[in-house]
Amino acid sequence: MKTLKMCVAVSALALTAGVAQAGEIAVIVKTTNSNFWQNVNLGAQAAIDGQTEHTMSFDGPAAESAIADQVNLVENAINRGVSGLVLAPSDPEALVPVVRRAFEAGIPVVIIDSALGEDAEGTYQAFLSTDNCAAGETVAARMIEEAGTTGSVAIMSYVAGVGSEIGRVGCFTDYLAEHSELSIVGPYYSQSQMATALNQTTDILAANPGLVGIFGANEPTAVGMGRAIVQSGRAGELVALGFDGNSDLQEFVRDGVLTATAVQGSFAMGELGVNALIDILGGETVDSFINTGVVLVDAENIDSPEAQNVLY
Asked: Which family is it part of (predicted)?
């Protein structure tokens, strides 16, 4: 009976979305204070510029850890009657009730970057993301290739419990355990604050002079990590792998501070997310999961078309 009710509810939402006309698409991300999310904004704007029926708003809290602020932004979007919502949830559980409320209000939702908890199943129409587990394994394989199979590797993570972090860092850790004897120092959580990551990394480098590798798992964390490596004079002494691809991280790769950085298709995440929502609003069917991919960028391929298409 529960399954039948959910099917009826989903069908009703599909009908509502199918007749929706011009209106606002709200894009709400984890924070506006990040080049990664601004690149998502550029992709979303490109999708909006390709049509004339919908307008777009872009918003997010001041920090990824400001989860209550993000919930309020979604509440406000629902209250003003947006046509659809593209959401990068900062917390897999805290955003579930408000996404359910959007569903009940007949507002289609496309989730990007980080998954929602299982309780949200059936309340959104598509999920677009890097396959974070596969990305974590890719970084771990590169760590083993560069650093070998013994020694210690520090993990500089961002916000504990976020869907992307669970897959990215969890699968990195599991891959190292399965394929090497490398031990883990950490993880340490920066709350996606560059200064926090810098201070944490500085302390960890001082306390662990024998580290063979270090992994910064998102943009602000990897930037703080890279700056700490430079300030400590440890550049080139250990394998440093980052995640994401802003100008700071690109410079670290070019200078040899980072061995490589795994770069998500952030522009594609915004563009494909908005396009998927436009299709839903037009009554079309979209895939429930769309993989936006990752490219491991190093000094050898940083100027290649493949890398330049994802760097920002």
From this structure: Belongs to the bacterial solute-binding protein 2 family.
The domains spanning 2-130+266-293 and 132-263 adopt the same CATH topology? yes
For helices 67-79 and 96-104, give the axis angle rounded to 10 degrees. Answer: 10
Task: Tell me the residue type at 93.
Answer: E
Closest CA to 231 of 212, 209, 213, 257: 257
pLDDT at position 309, please?
84
For residue 25, what are its two tokens?
């698409």
| Residues 29, 38: Cα–Cα separation, whole Å | 9
- CA 212 to chain CA centroid, Å, is 26
Reported as a single tens digit per residue, the pLDDT across 199-256 is 999 999 999 999 999 999 999 999 999 999 999 999 999 999 999 999 999 999 999 9
d(CA 213, CA 148): 9
* Radius of gyration (C-alpha) of the chain in whole angstroms: 20
Percent of the chain with pLDDT over 90: 89
Greater confidence, 234 or 1?
A: 234
In this predicted structure, the answer to whether residue 98 has a pLDDT above a threshold of 50 is yes
Q: Does residue 178 have a pLDDT over 90? A: yes
* CA 301 from centroid of its chain's CA atoms: 23
8-19 as b/e, with b when 16 or more CB fall inside 10 Å?
eeeeebbeebee
The label of the residue with tokens 């960890």 reads 204
Any idea which architecture 2-130+266-293 has in CATH?
3-Layer(aba) Sandwich (3.40)
Structure tokens given for 231: 């300030």
Q: Give the C-alpha separation, 119 to 122, whole Å.
A: 9
Q: Measure Cα distances from 60 to 87, 104, 242 in Å.
A: 10, 23, 24
- Ranges of each domain in the chain: 2-130+266-293, 132-263
* CATH number 3.40.50.2300 given to 132-263: yes
